[in-house]
C-alpha cells in the first residue's frame, strides 16, 4: 500500500515537473559520417547541406558553380551565454573536425570557414560571400555594431587586404579582421582532417583555441588564447554554429563531426503558447500531486512509527541499490539519512558556503556527532556531478592525512547527491589571497605551502595507490581554525599505478593545467606538480595565474615571474600587500621552487618529494635557465573517438 502511494505521488510529481521548463547544462554531439544522426536541432542556411557523409557549408561541384557561395549550419536552439538576472557567465567547450579542399586547378582558393557565436536568432546575410565568410554583410567596412555582434574563430585560406596571410586562423570580435591570429606552417586547404577545440572559461574570461591534425602530425599543433568578457560583445542568448563562403576564389568546406558542452542552458520552448500550456498543465498536475503527497505523507508517518524506523522502506529507489553497494565499500565515512542532513542545514536554508559548476556547499550542524560540517549538494541531473560524487566517495573515504579535508559521510536521495565534510572555519585559500579585507602574513603563507606539499607527497608516494588530484588550485585548498592547509575536492581525482599516467581528456581549471595536458591528454603526478607550482607562485605574489586586465608582459604569472628570475630581481614578484614583511630566503625559495615545478617540460619538473625537500631547506635551490624554456611534447592526443565523433575537453 505504501509503495503504491509513493509511486503515485512520484508519478504525479514527475509529470508536473516535466510539464514545466527546466534549466540544465547543454551537451550535444554529432558524427556526420553516420547518416542516421538526428537533424532536428540543426539549421541549414544558404548553400549548406548534408551530403550523406559530411556537412558541406558551401556548394560542391554537383550543385553548380563553386564561386560566390555562402552557407551556414547552426544549432537550432538558443544557447545561454550568460544569465541576465545574475550576470553568471557560462563555461563552454566545443570540438570539431573539418576539411577544406581545393576547388579547381584553374582557380585561386578561398575563402575559408569559421565557428561563430552571434545573437539568437541569427540569420545568414545575402551579401556575406567571399572574405565575409558568411559572418557579416559588406565586410569592406571591417566592423559590425555591438547589436549585431559576432565572436568567431576563423580559418582563412585567402588573403584579403585586411588579412595577415592566406593561411591562418584567428579570433574575430565584431569584425572579420582578426584581433589575434597565428599563421599555419602547412596549407589548410589540402583536404587533411583538422581538429579544433575551443574552450571558454567564464570565471577567468579566457577564450582558448587548440588546432591540430590527428591523421597528419606533420601539420603541427597551434594554439591561441585571448582574454575577453563575452558579456560585453554578445547578448545573454546566442546562436552557435559554422559559416563558410567563397568568392571568385573557390574551395569546398566540410564539417565531419561536432561536440558542444555549455554549463548554462535556458528553457527550451517552441512558443509562448506551448509554454502557457505547459504551465497550466503543471499547475493542475501539481495540485493533484499535492493531494496524493499529503495522503502518502500521513501514511508514511504512521508506518514509520509502527515500524520504529526498522521496517520502513529505504529512501533510495531500488534501481540505485547498485550504487549503494559500490559506495559502501569505502571505510570510515558513514551514510547519513536524508532527513538528518535536512535538519543539519535547516532544509538547506542555512549559510551557503559556496557555489560550483555542479552544485552548492552548505554549512550545517550534525547533532548526532556534535560537529559543524560542510555539505556539498550535487545535482543528479548532471552526469559530471554523478561522476564527481562517486569519485570523491570511493577515493577520499580511503585517505587519511592531516592535510586532506576529511569526508565525514554521504547520502543520495532521489535528485540529491550529498557529501558531508569536516567544516573549515577559515574557508579557502583564494578568499584570503585576494581579499582586500584580510592579509595572510608570511609565516602562515609558507606553512600553507608546506602543508599542501605534504598532502601531495601522501597522494603521490605514500598511499597504497598513486592519486592524481587533477584540480589543485587555491579554491580547493581549505584552511582550518589554525590556518593549516587541507586539500579538498577530489571530484576529478583518479587512481593510477605508482610511476604511471592516465590518458584521458584534460580536466581541471585553465591557468592551472599543465601545458602537456592540452596536447598529449596525459595526466600524471607531473601535471599535479605543475598546478602545485602555480599555487606557490600565487602564494608568493598574490596574483592570479592569468590576469586579462594586466599590462603587457604580465598576463601570465609564470612568464612574468620567470622574466624577473632571468633579470636577477626575483623578489620583485613578492606580494606588495606584505609591505616587505617576509623572510627573504623563504620568499626566494618559494618562487624558485614554483618556477621549477612549472617548467614547461614535464620531464624536467621535480617530483613532489624533491620540491618539498628544497622548501624545507634540506636540499639546495635548483639552477634554472634564465629564460623560460619552450615546451616539447609527445604527439597530440586523439580527441576523436573510434566512430569519428569528436569529444570535448573538460573545464
TrEMBL record:
UniProt keywords, alphabetically: ATP-binding, Cell membrane, Glycoprotein, Kinase, Lectin, Membrane, Nucleotide-binding, Receptor, Serine/threonine-protein kinase, Signal, Transferase, Transmembrane, Transmembrane helix
- One function term, GO molecular function aspect: protein serine/threonine kinase activity
The domain of life for this entry's organism is Eukaryota
The membrane-spanning stretches of this chain are: 281-303
The biological process GO terms on file are: defense response to oomycetes
Xref: CDD domains = lectin_legume_LecRK_Arcelin_ConA, STKc_IRAK
Q: Where is the signal peptide?
A: 1-18
Q: Where does it live in the cell?
A: Cell membrane
Q: Does the keyword Ribonucleoprotein apply?
A: no
Protein name stated in the entry: non-specific serine/threonine protein kinase
Q: Which organism is it from?
A: Rhynchospora pubera
Amino acid at each position: 500500500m505504501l509503495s503504491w502511494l509513493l509511486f503515485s505521488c512520484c508519478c504525479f510529481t514527475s509529470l508536473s515537473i516535466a510539464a514545466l521548463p527546466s534549466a540544465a547544462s547543454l551537451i550535444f554531439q554529432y558524427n556526420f559520417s553516420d547518416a542516421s544522426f538526428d537533424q532536428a536541432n540543426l539549421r541549414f542556411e544558404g548553400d549548406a547541406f548534408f551530403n550523406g557523409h559530411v556537412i558541406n557549408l558551401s556548394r560542391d561541384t554537383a550543385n553548380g558553380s563553386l564561386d560566390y557561395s555562402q552557407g551556414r549550419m547552426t544549432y537550432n536552439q538558443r544557447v545561454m551565454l550568460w544569465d541576465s538576472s545574475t550576470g553568471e557567465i557560462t563555461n563552454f567547450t566545443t570540438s570539431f573536425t573539418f576539411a577544406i579542399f581545393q576547388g579547381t586547378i584553374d582557380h585561386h582558393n578561398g575563402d575559408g570557414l569559421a565557428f561563430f557565436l552571434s545573437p539568437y536568432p541569427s540569420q545568414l546575410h545575402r551579401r556575406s560571400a567571399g572574405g565575409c565568410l558568411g559572418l557579416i554583410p559588406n565586410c569592406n567596412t571591417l566592423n559590425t555594431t555591438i547589436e549585431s555582434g559576432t565572436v568567431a574563430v576563423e580559418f582563412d585560406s585567402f588573403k584579403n587586404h585586411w588579412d595577415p596571410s592566406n593561411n591562418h586562423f584567428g579570433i574575430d570580435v565584431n569584425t572579420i579582421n582578426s584581433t589575434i591570429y597565428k599563421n599555419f606552417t602547412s596549407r589548410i586547404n589540402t583536404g587533411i582532417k583538422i581538429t579544433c577545440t575551443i574552450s571558454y572559461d567564464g570565471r577567468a574570461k579566457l577564450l582558448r583555441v587548440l588546432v591540430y591534425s590527428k591523421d597528419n602530425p606533420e601539420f603541427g599543433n597551434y594554439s591561441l588564447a585571448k582574454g575577453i568578457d563575452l558579456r560585453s560583445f554578445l547578448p545573454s542568448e546566442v546562436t552557435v554554429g559554422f559559416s563558410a563562403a567563397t568568392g571568385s576564389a573557390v574551395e569546398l568546406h566540410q564539417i565531419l563531426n561536432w561536440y558542444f558542452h555549455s554549463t548554462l542552458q535556458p528553457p527550451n520552448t517552441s512558443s509562448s503558447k506551448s509554454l502557457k500550456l505547459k504551465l497550466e498543465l503543471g499547475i493542475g498536475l501539481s495540485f493533484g500531486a499535492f493531494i496524493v503527497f499529503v495522503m502518502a505523507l500521513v501514511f508514511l508517518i504512521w508506518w514509520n512509527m509502527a515500524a520504529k524506523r526498522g521496517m520502513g522502506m529505504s529512501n533510495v529507489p531500488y534501481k540505485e541499490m547498485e550504487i549503494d553497494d559500490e559506495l559502501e565499500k569505502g571505510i570510515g565515512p558513514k551514510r547519513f539519512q536524508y532527513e538528518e542532513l535536512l535538519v543539519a542545514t535547516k532544509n538547506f536554508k542555512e549559510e551557503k558556503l559556496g557555489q560550483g559548476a555542479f552544485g552548492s556547499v552548505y554549512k550545517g550542524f550534525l547533532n548526532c556527532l556534535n560537529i559543524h560540517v560542510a555539505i556539498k549538494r550535487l545535482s543528479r541531473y548532471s552526469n559530471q556531478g554523478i561522476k564527481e560524487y562517486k569519485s570523491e566517495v570511493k577515493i577520499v573515504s580511503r585517505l587519511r592525512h592531516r592535510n586532506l579535508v576529511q569526508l565525514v559521510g554521504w547520502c543520495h536521495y532521489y535528485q540529491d547527491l550529498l557529501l558531508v565534510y569536516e567544516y573549515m572555519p577559515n574557508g579557502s585559500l583564494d578568499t584570503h589571497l585576494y581579499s582586500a579585507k584580510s592579509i595572510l602574513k608570511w609565516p602562515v603563507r609558507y606553512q600553507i605551502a608546506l602543508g599542501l606539499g605534504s598532502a601531495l607527497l601522501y597522494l603521490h608516494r605514500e598511499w597504497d595507490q598513486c592519486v592524481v588530484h587533477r584540480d589543485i588550485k587555491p579554491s580547493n585548498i581549505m584552511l582550518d581554525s589554525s590556518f593549516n592547509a587541507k586539500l579538498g575536492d577530489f571530484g576529478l581525482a583518479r587512481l593510477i599505478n605508482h610511476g604511471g599516467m592516465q590518458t584521458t581528456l584534460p580536466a581541471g581549471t585553465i591557468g592551472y593545467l599543465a601545458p602537456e595536458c592540452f596536447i598529449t591528454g596525459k595526466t600524471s603526478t607531473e601535471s599535479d606538480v605543475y598546478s602545485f607550482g602555480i599555487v606557490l607562485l600565487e602564494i608568493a605574489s598574490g596574483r592570479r595565474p592569468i590576469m586579462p586586465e594586466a599590462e603587457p608582459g604580465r598576463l601570465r604569472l609564470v612568464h612574468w615571474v620567470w622574466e624577473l628570475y632571468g633579470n636577477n630581481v626575483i623578489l620583485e614578484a613578492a606580494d606588495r600587500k606584505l609591505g616587505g614583511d617576509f623572510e627573504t630566503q623563504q620568499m626566494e625559495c618559494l618562487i624558485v621552487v614554483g618556477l621549477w615545478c612549472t617548467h614547461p617540460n614535464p620531464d624536467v619538473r621535480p617530483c613532489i618529494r624533491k620540491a618539498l625537500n628544497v622548501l624545507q631547506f634540506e636540499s639546495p635551490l635548483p639552477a634554472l635557465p634564465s629564460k623560460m624554456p619552450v615546451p616539447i611534447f609527445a604527439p597530440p592526443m586523439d580527441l576523436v573517438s573510434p566512430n569519428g565523433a569528436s569529444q570535448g575537453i573538460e573545464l
